[in-house]
Amino acid sequence: MLIHLIILIPLAGALISLLAGKNNQSLSKNIALLGSLISLVVFIYAAIQHQAGNTELLSLNKPWLPEMNLALKFSVDGISLLLIALSQVLIPLIILSTSKIEYHKSHLLYALILVTQSALVGVFSAKDIFLFYFFFEAALVPAYFIALNWGNKESSKASFKMFIYTIFGSLIMLVALVFLYSKGQTADMDALISTAEFMPSGVQRALFWAFLLAFAIKMPLFPMHTWQPDAYTTSPTPATMLLSGLLSKMGVYGLIRIALPLSPWAAEHYSVIVIGMAVIGLIYGSIIAIKQDSIKRLIAYSSFAHMGLMAAGVFSGNIEGLQGAVFQMLAHGVNAVGLFFVAKIIFERTGSRSLSSLGGLNKTAPALSIFFMIILLGSVALPLTNGFVGEFLMLKGLFEKHQLLGIIAGLSIILGAVYMLRLFQKTMFGESNELTESVEDVSGIEKLTLAIISGLVILMGVFPNVLLKVSEPASEALLNLLAKI
Amino acid sequence: MYPIISLSVTGLLTLFLGFSENKKIVFPASIAFLLIALATAFIDWNAPGFYFNDMLQVNNTSIVFWAILIISAILIMGFSEGFERFEFAQPAEYFAIVQFSLVGAIMMVSFKNLIMLFLGIEILSVAMYVLTGADKRNIRGNEAALKYFLMGAFATGILLFGMAMFYGATGTFNIGSGVFIGGDNSFFLWIGCTFMLIGMLFKVAAAPFHLWTPDVYEGAPTIFTAYMSTIVKTAGFVALFKVLSTTFSGLQDFWWIMIAVLVTLSLMIGNIGAVSQNSFKRLMAYSSISHAGFMLLALLGDHENALGSIMFYSVVYTLATISAFGVLMVVSKERIEKGRVYEQNDLFKGLAQNNGFLATVLIIAMLSLAGIPLTGGFWGKFFVFRDAASSGLFWVIIMAVLMSAIAIYYYFKPVLLSMSKKTSLESITINPLAKFIFAITTFGTIVLGIFPWILRSLF
């Protein structure tokens, strides 16, 4: 019974950081870091035990609102385990990445980051649909307030747009959940699966589109993506990292955990349409990314393209596609945080995010450019980096499902290489100018953070099986469930 | 039963306290009187019974509502600071009227006989007409009071007419087992039911009987706006529930479509109307209309859960509303324009820079009103959605959900303004009592957001 500890430790950290770290950035940061690391250690212990067969540790079942049949029910399978691991690893990295700049009211910033962590663990482990919904929404609120409070006027507009969009989608999903609950008289996900199986096709269609709307906005999936580039570009970097690295994964996770099992017939029925939408988004995002001048906006569009491929993988309906999507969620989380961190470092030192005004950083900051290269290659999906495994598996799955769409989706790898290498060339190579001449290289905590991220990129690329094995039983179980229908 | 006696006596005492030389004593004495009333409410705990020739019914449910009403009154009156800032203030009168009005509210939540319901509604309403015009020299306040009085008097007439028809059809004023359509009386029963509902729905500001709301909310002194929007609404909804779930339960086929249409109207008018409001009090007035719509949703479901949902909703709504109006009161007294306190939305500009505590209170109140998880407001909405779902009314729920999305837009207007970097405010002074009340309302909102069963398990 450690799952509630993993949720509560960050919350406690948030509270302590809020109370003790007032007006003292380094103290509040250290408290927050400590809180997230303790949570990580507890999680690693529990995860090892879980893999050894002791599944009790990461599950909990307590009544919540007994007369309504709502329970505080948590349990994890392989997919959940990997995503919790992702959030546990990325949050300390995000906290580390904030070390260079002074934030006003920093204690509040760190408290909000930790609250997001708790909510994410909740989302990835909840087994009660309303508990899931509760955490799904709760994760957004702190991220929104980070964007609002530490951003500029533009970002408050963009993040407000994001907030309204996502809440709107979630509310539609809430209606669908309340409907299922009123039919099944239970809020337990596993029990509802058997209720959903026998829903008439018309009802399933409505449920599916309600679920898809919520998750497609969250990811975002074409054509519900219009909030994303602005929000990612204008938000302060910690908020962007949270949004792109972690919150977007809640959308894919929701597809796997809610949309597929709770409207199985419709999910199969509409899979080609959804894959079509995803592939359009994939190509569209990649092409727009090629033309971008702002580093952050370029990464934002690349992120949008990657999310499209993940949705396609999930809906391909075979083990390769699903496993690839799960793996790519982890890889993209790490890569997005790394890329946005590099963008932040470049901006802090040169004061510019515009590709046309940068160049020649590899001479003044060689270490930065090496780390950047590694993370970037991960994003381009070069073999032996983490991006390759996921994309390869997803494309293979997609080919099996629908050859034409698979071929089109395959183009995205080429396009991805084009915009990413252009990004690298325009920033790192070329002539130095007055902006980039006197840039100092990364050092200290920045170097450590980048080294950890680069290490993850390579390790995940070389030993993907370690992670794939964890999620394989869960993916197979889900596909077996869908195959029955 | 005991709080009715206690409040009537202490109300009179408060009036006499007004003659004393030391005006400062009235405020603490009134709070003490309210606390005494709160204590006497629990004398009847676990001792259900009937009073006044079976015209009042007391049981644990009604005692919970008494406590909610009296505690809300105490929290709101805590902001009055003894009305020292009011020009030409008569604090003793205000406090006395507040205590009398609570007598009316208590009768509304525990009546067994329609005469008691009528008396309760009238005692509460007349008190509210007076309090709306409490700021005598304010023309807007006078206008609001007159409007409220004229329209309210009309609604009362309709209510009374409905009761008379109901008496004609059934031969009794007692509510109890359901009445059924059939025979020669059905026409009068329909009229009785419709007119009584109209009279009561006017009091809770459900559309299309909402027209008084924005003007009255804006014109009344803020403290009494807060009072009106919480106490009247809670008592009014319990009264509606009592009538609909007992006597009129047999007529459900007749009134459910009426309520469903009113829900739709209230949600649309409330939420769409609020979008373009610049005055914070008008915004809250429209929000109050939309919350009336949400609470009506609970009445559409099965009656076993409805009272619990109404109770939960009114508590979270009361907490958030007290926070919001409290912040408005504290901040607006710092900015006087043309001799009047400034109550537009942009009053809150830069509040977070200036006073983080007040900004936090305001933000949490707005999140709760918008129904975002982690706050009690989410569960309030969830419970009423679930109730409506049990009757299969999904088109109403989808409507309500769309309107909730609109609601986020206008509830976030003050939030966004308060986070803005520029500020026109100077340092804001909060007295310790107000700080204490904010702590209670904000903490209560969060606790109910995470542990909703604390309240839900009461009944």
Could you give the order of the helices and strands of chain B? HHEEHHHHHHHHHHEEHHHHHH
The share of residues in helices of chain B is over 70%
- Average pLDDT score of chain A: 89
Distance between the termini of chain A: 34 Å
Largest interface: A-B, 30 and 31 residues
How many domains, in number, for the residues of chain B?
Answer: 1
Query: What's the count of strands of chain A?
Result: 2
Oligomerization category of the chains in this entry? heterodimer
CA-atom Rg of chain B in angstroms: 21 Å
Which structural class should the secondary elements of chain A be placed in? mainly alpha
Major β-sheet profile of chain B:
2 strands, antiparallel
Sheet having the most strands of chain A: 2 strands, antiparallel
Instruction: Determine the N-to-C terminus distance of chain B.
Output: 20 Å
Principal-axis shape of chain A: globular
> Strand order within the widest sheet of chain A?
1-2
- Any low-confidence stretches of chain B, pLDDT <50, length ≥5? none
Estimated structural class of chain B? mainly alpha
Number of domains of chain A: 3
Indicate the proportion of strand residues of chain A. under 5%
Summarize the structure.
The complex is a heterodimer of chains A (485) and B (459). Chain A has 485 residues and is mostly helical.
Describe what you observe in this structure.
The complex is a heterodimer of chains A (485) and B (459). Chain A is built from 20 helices and 2 strands. The two termini of chain A are 34 Å apart. A two-stranded antiparallel ribbon of chain A has the order 1-2. Chain A is mainly alpha-helical and 485 residues long. Chain A has helices spanning 3-20, 25-51, 78-97, 106-125, 129-149, 153-184, 189-197, 201-218, 228-234, 237-262, 264-269, 271-290, 295-315, 319-350, 361-364, 366-380, 386-401, 403-428, 444-462, 464-483, and strands at 60-65, 70-74. The longest helix of chain A is centred in the middle third of the chain and has 32 residues, at 153-184. Chain A folds into 3 domains: 1-126, no CATH class; 155-263; 270-485, no CATH class. The relative contact order of chain A is 0.10. In chain B, the strands form 2 sheets. Chain B has a two-stranded antiparallel ribbon. A two-stranded antiparallel ribbon of chain B has the order 3-4. Chain B has one domain (2-456). Chain B is globular and about 70 Å long. In chain B, α2 packs antiparallel against α3 and α10 (252-275) packs parallel to α16. Chain B is built from 18 helices and 4 strands. By secondary structure, chain B is an all-alpha fold. Chain A binds chain B through residues 64-68, 105, 130, 133-135, 137-138, 141, 148-149, 153, 156, 160, 163-164, 167-168, 171-172, 174-175, 178-179, 181-182, and chain B through 352, 356, 367, 372-374, 378, 382, 385-386, 389-390, 392, 394, 397-398, 401-402, 404-405, 408-409, 412, 416, 419-421, 452-453, 456-457.
